[in-house]
Amino acid sequence: MKEGHCLGDQVLRFCERRTVLPNVSIRSAQMETIQSLVRAGVGLSLIPKMAVMSGRVDAPVYRSLGTPRPERSVVVAWPKPRPLSRAAEEFVKEMGRRKADG
Fold it and tell me: Which end of the chain has less Cβ packing within 10 Å, N or C?
């Protein structure tokens, strides 16, 4: 990801902790662009599982990392004085269930 993007920074820190120093030649702000470059044979990349382009004929090859795997936390936030709508409450509940399922 582009320099300064939290995901790009996290990937580089993950590599550094494993004494892997990648040669970063291209950066992008778009996950689709990164995967297109990989498909074109320009290199390889670490991407979040949620960005996998499953089912596409032209999708690159994906491999899961072994342990220890990188992790990142995602949270939901809303203004404290404002009550959640019914839809927002259901969304928060669903996200809690998905986390519990792993």
Answer: C
Evaluate whether 43 touches 37 at the Cβ level (below 8 Å). Answer: yes
Per-residue pLDDT of the chain (102 residues; tens, 9 = 90+): 777 778 888 888 888 888 888 888 888 888 889 999 999 998 898 888 888 887 888 888 899 888 888 777 777 888 888 889 999 999 988 888 766 555
E-only strand ranges, 1-102: none
Task: Count the neighbouring beta carbons within 10 Å of the beta carbon of residue 75.
Answer: 5
Domain range summary for the chain, segments of one domain joined by +: 6-51
Distance, CA of 46 to CA of 102 (rounded, Å): 20
Sequence-distant (6+) residues with CB within 8 A of 100 are none
pTM for this predicted structure: 0.63
At 65, give phi and psi (nearest 5°).
Answer: -80, 145
